[in-house]
Every structure is written in structure tokens, then in C-alpha cells.
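Order emerges. As here.
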Amino acid sequence: MADMESLEVTRRSVLGKKVKRLRAQGMIPGIIYGKGLEPIPIQLDYKQFRQIYKKVRGTSPINLVITGEGKPVGTLIQKVQRDTLTNKILHADFLKVDFTKPVTVEVPVVLTGKAPVEESGIGKVMQEMMYIHVKALPTQIPHEIEVDISGLEKTNQTIHASDIQLPEGVKLSTMTDETSVIASVIKHIYEEEAEAEEEEEEAEEGEEEKTTEE
């Protein structure tokens, strides 16, 4: 809890299309909402938020300090809206959380280790899911989930969500099916082409033998 990021924000009176003026002043419109809380429109400094967002994404809690108000609000970044052309942040949603109760969040999946099937040149590992949903206390949410692929030795092998070793205090959410494929192995294209050529040659040899017998 001591290392939790804090961000100073201000209650926002500018609403609707008028928020363009805020963005022109280097501010981002946002909102805080959650169970039992009346939504609070806020505005925050663009550069400060971008810097913190790079660190925490949506997996670490942030204390929002509302100017002129005493107690900080513990939150998670629930959603960030970006400009489709410039990728600039346009709006941020913050979910108020209770640090004593687990929450469900989307966490990125990172493949680690070296797969023997790739080192041998037989196949290639394909990552099928980039994110999974997990359930944990806000302070125990991992920044990412590591999936070891060193056990992939042959084609057609797969790693399912149920195979992942999750950190202590973290569980797979029902939003992610246990049978969901996280990573799979496919044959290299040249391997498939070689097999096809081999089958074609065998077929031609069979036809030649048949002709000779006749």
C-alpha cells in the first residue's frame, strides 16, 4: 500500500462537447464511479496521468486525491479512451475499489522460456490470447501473467488457461474459460510443403509401378 501511486485531480464542471477546451489546456476529462458512489466527473493533468498509466495500466490501484477534499479515493483505471488517429488519450474512467474485496480485471499474458519445438525447427508457437481475466484483491493484481512454453516439444500441443500457474491470491475469473487456448504449436510452412511434395512423389511412384506391371 505504501508504494501505491497517487494522482491529484479536480472535480469537473465542464461537461459534454465543452471538454475539448480542457484538452486544449493539457487536461483530460475523467470520471470516478463504483458501487454505492455517485459518479464524480473529474479533470486531471495529461502528462501526469500518461506517466502513471505507463506504470500501472489497469492492474495496480491508484489513490486519487481530489483537490480540496480530504480522504483519497482508491481506484483502478477501468477504461482509457484514445483518439483513433493520433492515439492520444481523450478520457479516463476510474473504478472505486474496496481493498478488502477481490475484483476482476484483465491482465496481459506474456510467453516465457524457449520452446523445443521452435529450436528444432519443427514448428512455431502461436499466442492465441493476449489477455486473461483474473480475480484478486486490488493490491495483489499482477502486472502480467507469465506462461512458460518450455514444455512445448511437438506440433499440435496447446497450453490452456487451466494450465497456467497463477500467483498466490490470484484466481482465474469465470470470464475466462479454463479450456481457452493460450498458446498452440503449428507446423512450419516449409514442413507442410515438404510433406506435400513427399506424398506427391510417392503417388507418382505408385502410378509408375502400376504402369510397369501392366
